[in-house]
Amino acid sequence: MPHDHAEPHSLLPSDPELRARALETILVQKGLVDPAALNALIDTYQNEIGPQNGARVVARAWLDPAFKARLFKDATAAIAELGFMGRQGEHMVAVENTPEVHNIVVCTLCSCYPWPVLGIPPAWYKSDAYRSRAVREPRAVLAEFGVKLLQSQQVRVWDSTAEIRYLVVPMRPNGTGGLNEAELAAWVSRNSMIGTALAERPA
């Protein structure tokens, strides 16, 4: 009788989060994963490593011209000043959005991404569609994310690699002149540091 290769997969739920939990349960039950170590890893990426770090970098650059100059001269060193460094963040380059230029980051080969300042890459960043279309038709991709640019505004696409990872410094929104660093950081989202969103008032 032929073996149905799809049968084992049908036992896993279709929802990605439920699938992840099911796999986690199986690995823990088989003794292949230590629950305490897993919880510590999850806590690290949720609370210590993530886009809140990049938001602090951007907010500091908005407020401190000297830091901003260092960031664009040597992003890795400037980011390390705030304590954000490590694997996947060794070779950083910061690029600035302006009224004339909008930057967007993609990794066309795989999913190279600056984990220390942006955390874990979103699923769409790793998708074939984003990786190919961001290069071919960046304005269309940005429009799908809700970013409408003037025709006079140039779009620059930066291809992240294992050697270089990019951080977009979005334009500082109007009306934020009296805000401190923590307040400004709340205006900066993960997507705005990839280039698929603008910095905007937090919900």
Provide a concise account of the structure shown.
The protein has 203 residues and is mainly α.
Kindly describe this structure.
This protein is mostly helical and 203 residues long. It has two domains: 14-47; 51-194, Nitrile hydratase alpha /Thiocyanate hydrolase gamma (Nitrile Hydratase, Chain A, Alpha-Beta Complex), CATH 3.90.330.10. 46% of the residues lie in helices and 11% in strands. It is globular.
Structural class designation? mainly alpha
What letter string, H or E per element, gives the SSE order?
HHHHHHEEHHHHEEHH
* CATH topology heading of the largest domain: Nitrile Hydratase, Chain A
Tell me the fraction of residues in β-strands, as a range.
5-15%
What number of domains? 2
Spatial separation of the terminal alpha carbons: 57 Å
- Tertiary shape: globular
Query: How many β-strand stretches?
Result: 4
Low-confidence stretches at least 5 residues in length (pLDDT < 50)? 1-10
At the fourth level of CATH, the homologous superfamily of the largest domain is Nitrile hydratase alpha /Thiocyanate hydrolase gamma
Sketch the major β-sheet: 2 strands, parallel
CATH class (first level) name of the largest domain: Alpha Beta
Helix content: 40-55%
Going by CATH, the architecture of the largest domain would be Alpha-Beta Complex
Question: How are the strands of the biggest sheet laid out side by side?
Answer: 1-4
How would you state the average pLDDT, rounded? 86
